[in-house]
Structure formats: structure tokens, C-alpha cells
Recover the amino acids of this structure.
């Protein structure tokens, strides 16, 4: 029953191939900025050969190579890490990386080197960047009540990467004109490579401040639930997170989240239509929390750093 239902849902929503179950990793890798981020066993690719101007040009078309997508992701992740550094707690970073790697493994995409991190800001949000970079804020992590909720948040962001939502957002019609303008400025600038990187960074900043298409968010919710269940978690983790969002109306910590996503209530309604009893069997068997979550996140909630 469980395998049959998961297979049907995966075919309809994921279309990512067979399941894999690699050993969960949690080492620390480095970004080009020198900051570290919790990741799996894959190492970060070299920055050699980075051509930001060529990548900007690719954003005016649909012809973006995997290498260019990774370059975009690196710059986008650097934008996020520039706004808020990583939490200085290796145990928390390792734990979140482990959960993220396990959930991402359910998508069976070995071509993506996933990297997870917790950034040190009280604001409530989570972010994805092309190429497999996922960041969750300390403010959100501290508000979660169990590992299934963490898995659901990470699964939602993983889905954005799988569906290339951020890349598609960058090449959408309403941004193409701005990118062409940046191309002209970059070509005319005497500052060369550094200016080109800055232009690419501005594209990423614009997308994070305005948000993705609402349909992309709903799709990420649907795929995220499937990934969470495939990873063995209670299927209602995301619903509990959205209920927490809905109960936090007026809280300034949620300002960017609420400004760039559909309302929590509309997401809950869409999720209810999608689930509609299909996951009842997994509610009893799926994990809601673990001792590892209580140890890692509990200490963070009590103000633990380092």
C-alpha cells in the first residue's frame, strides 16, 4: 500500500526516477566567499572558468547549462550569506545538513551536490538557490517543533531547485529587459569581471526581494510533501508549519516571507486538496520528531552558539 501510493504520487508530482538511499553525510564545505556551509559528501566545484557575462547573456534565453546554473546559484547563495552569516554552531549546521541530505536523496538526483546551512537572523524564512544551495534562518528553525517540520521546510526548498523555479524566474519576460540593461552596463564598464559579477548578483537580489510565481510555491508544497513522506516523515509537517505562519500575522519577523509567498491560508487550502486523505496511513508510521532535533535545535532555542 505505502509503496504503491508513493510510486503513484512520485510519478504525478516528481518525475524524478527511482528512489535512492545513500548514507547521510554532514561535512562542512566552503563557498567561494570563504564562508562555510553544511553539506553532504560532495565537494564544491572550482570557480575556475567562471564567466558571469556569458551567464547573464544566457539568462536572456532558455539556453542555460548546468554549469551556468551552478554559477548563478553560487552568486545567489553569496547574496544570502552576505546579508546574514551562518550560525556559529557546527552541531546545528551538521544536523540540518544531515536532514537535508536525507530528504534530498529521495529525489534521486545524484547530479546535484546539495548544500544546507542555517543563517543567523531572527527573521523567519528559508531560501533556495540554483545548483542545490538551501538556507534556513535561525528564526524559522527556532520556531519549529519537530524534525518532520524541518524536513518539510527543506523539502519545499529542494523542490524549488528540482523544478528550476529560480532560474525560470530569472529568465521570465518581466526580468529579461532588466538583464539586457545590465548586460549593456557590464559591457561598457571598465571594471570588467567584478562589475559583471555584481550585475549577476543584482539579478539574484531582485528575485529574492520580489519572490517566485505563486504557482511555483504551490508546486513546491506538493512536491515537498512527497519528498518528506518518502523520507519517512509524518506527512503533515508542512501543514503544521503553515498553521504556525497563519498564527503569526502581524509579526515583523515574517515580513519578507509573507511578502513573497501566497498567504498561509491559501497554501493550507491547496495542500488539503492535494492530500485529501491520501497520506492517512503515513500519519501513523511517519516520524514527527527525533532526539537529534531536540538536542541540536533545543540548544539553539536556549541561546546556544558554538
Amino acid at each position: 500500500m505505502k509503496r504503491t501510493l508513493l510510486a503513484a504520487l512520485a510519478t504525478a508530482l516528481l518525475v524524478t526516477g527511482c528512489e535512492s538511499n545513500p548514507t547521510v553525510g554532514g561535512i562542512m564545505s566552503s563557498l567561494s566567499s570563504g564562508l562555510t556551509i553544511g553539506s553532504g559528501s560532495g565537494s564544491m566545484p572550482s570557480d575556475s572558468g567562471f564567466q558571469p557575462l556569458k551567464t547573464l547573456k544566457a539568462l536572456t534565453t532558455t539556453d542555460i547549462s548546468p554549469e551556468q546554473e551552478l554559477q548563478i546559484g553560487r552568486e545567489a547563495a553569496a547574496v544570502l550569506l552576505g546579508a546574514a552569516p551562518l550560525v556559529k554552531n557546527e552541531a546545528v549546521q551538521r544536523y540540518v545538513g544531515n536532514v537535508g541530505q536525507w530528504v534530498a536523496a529521495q529525489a534521486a538526483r545524484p547530479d546535484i551536490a546539495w548544500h544546507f546551512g542555517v543563517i543567523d537572523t531572527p527573521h523567519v524564512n528559508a531560501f533556495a538557490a540554483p545548483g542545490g544551495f538551501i538556507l534556513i534562518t535561525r528564526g524559522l528553525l527556532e520556531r519549529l517543533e519537530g524534525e518532520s517540520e524541518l524536513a518539510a521546510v527543506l523539502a519545499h526548498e529542494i523542490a524549488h531547485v528540482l523544478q528550476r523555479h529560480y532560474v525560470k524566474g530569472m529568465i521570465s519576460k518581466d526580468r529579461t529587459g532588466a538583464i539586457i540593461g545590465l548586460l549593456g552596463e557590464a559591457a561598457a564598464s571598465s571594471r570588467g569581471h567584478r562589475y559583471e559579477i555584481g550585475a549577476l548578483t543584482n539579478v539574484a537580489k531582485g528575485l529574492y526581494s520580489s519572490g517566485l510565481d505563486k504557482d511555483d510555491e504551490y508546486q513546491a508544497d506538493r512536491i515537498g510533501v512527497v519528498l518528506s513522506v518518502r523520507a519517512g516523515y509524518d506527512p503533515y509537517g508542512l501543514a503544521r508549519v503553515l498553521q504556525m505562519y497563519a498564527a503569526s500575522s502581524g509579526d515583523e519577523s515574517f515580513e519578507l516571507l509573507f511578502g513573497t509567498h501566497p498567504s498561509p491560508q491559501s497554501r493550507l487550502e491547496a495542500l488539503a486538496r492535494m492530500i485529501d486523505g491520501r497520506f492517512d496511513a503515513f500519519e501513523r508510521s511517519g516520524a514527527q520528531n527525533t532526539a537529534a532535533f531536540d538536542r541540536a535545535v533545543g540548544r539553539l532555542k536556549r541561546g546556544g552558539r558554538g
